[in-house]
Design brief:
Elements lengths: L7 H9 L7 H25 L2 H10 L5 H24 L3 H24 L4 E2 L7 E2 L7 H20 L7 H6 L14
Antiparallel strand pairs: 1-2
Helix pairs in contact: 2-4, 2-6, 3-4, 4-5, 5-6
Length: 185
């Protein structure tokens, strides 16, 4: 059996690890999980009690045919809650972060096209939605917010392992003892 020599990258990561064995990037990932997950749960929870308003908000973008806007308006709030809860819990983190990032990309596209077309709508991101006065639109801030949230999701797609993730408890594989492999020397 040959001894394992630590690589310089492993040394750097180990030195950045905290007392619980987690490095700085692990804690950044936890903050990303809680940030994106929390926003999705709040957004979905604020809309789920008034799904007709959610449909009106989706229709305000004037992108989708009426029937599809109804489906999206009804489906989006519970999906936001589910994805948010998965992120907060740290369960299927990579996939939940991918879906959350795609939500944000879709929101950015929707808001941008409304801005370019001169529509004056509230995004309906946290309830409400529909027509507003031209001086009440906040397209630039909404796009920046959603781009920031999408960045949190992309970070988690690239680096999904974070502290306190339920998936680590459920799907943890026992380490394979190295003496089970034949020595090639």
């Amino acid at each position: 059996m040959s001894p394992v020599t630590p690589t310089p990258a492993a040394d750097t990561e180990a030195s950045a690890a905290g007392p619980a064995g987690h490095g700085v990037l692990d804690w950044v990932g936890l903050a990303c999980r809680l940030g994106l997950g929390g926003v999705l749960v709040v957004a979905g929870a604020l809309k789920i009690s008034d799904l007709e308003q959610s449909v009106l908000a989706v229709r305000g973008y004037q992108i989708l045919p009426y029937d599809l806007a109804v489906v999206v308006g009804h489906a989006l709030p519970p999906l936001e809650i589910i994805v948010g809860v998965l992120l907060i819990a740290g369960l299927f983190t990579r996939w939940a972060a991918l879906i959350g990032s795609l939500f944000m990309a879709a929101f950015i596209i929707g808001i941008t096209q409304a801005w370019v077309r001169g529509l004056t709508i509230d995004c309906g991101c946290f309830g409400g939605g529909g027509q507003v006065a031209a001086n009440q639109t906040k397209y630039g801030l909404e796009i920046l917010r959603d781009a920031g949230l999408m960045a949190l999701g992309v970070f988690l797609v690239i680096r999904p392992h974070t502290p306190f993730a339920v998936e680590d408890r459920l799907f943890a594989l026992a380490p394979v003892p190295t003496d089970e492999f034949p020595d090639n020397e």
